[in-house]
Amino acid sequence: MEPIKILIYIHAFFGGLGLTSGIINIFKTKGGIKHKVIGRIFSYSMLTSSFISLVIARMSEHENLFLFLIGIFTIYMILSGNRALTLKSKTKADWIDKIISGTMLVTSIGMIVIGITGVIQKIDNSILYIFFGCVGTFMTCKDFHTFRIFTKKKNAWLISHLGRMVGALIASITAFLVAALNIGTLSVWILPTILGIGYIIYWNKKITN
């Protein structure tokens, strides 16, 4: 079997495992043992799947800059979502937190630039770069805001954790729709993210009230 096919199968396996465990965890009691165990499975599965997607997206026969950047986006959300848990016991964010968010901020700005250039040149689906670039910019700016106020604002770490992990789940759902079901319409790329943002807003209000 060709190496690329092996990579694709491994990518699909861990992507499916991440999607399944992520959906299950939505319905588990937050903070419980089962939630934490399933959360680890989700995190490791999504990280493995995303790192493999970076390799696949740079191979000549499967080269896709957008999917490469989305892979970075997903890795950022998993890493920052788990790092948010450490804020509960820290007095300030450390350099690892800032590097993760800073790298994603630079990537997001790059996506916006690529998208705007593509729109001017009338390249199909360039709006996706702008959309996800803006989402990434917003999330990373929120990260740096959280780094400044998390010791004063109750549950700031939890809000950050929830937002990033739900974002990673939305990425896995979108990847399933696009890759497994071969549905690549603009609405399929954007609608899950919009629904995910609505879910995050709902939980943010529930946590802060």
- The best one-word shape is globular
The count of β-strands is: 0
Structural class: mainly alpha
Largest sheet: none
Number of domains: 1
Helices and strands, in order, run as: HHHHHHH
Overall pLDDT = 88
Strand content: under 5%
End-to-end distance, in Å?
55 Å
Stretches with pLDDT under 50, minimum 5 residues: none
Cα Rg: 17 Å
Provide an overview of this structure.
- This protein is mainly alpha-helical and 209 residues long.
- The chain has one domain.
- Helices cover 81% and strands 0% of the residues.
- It contains seven helices and no strands.
- Helix 3 (65-86) runs antiparallel to helix 6.
Keywords:
single chain, 209 residues, mainly alpha, 7 helices, globular
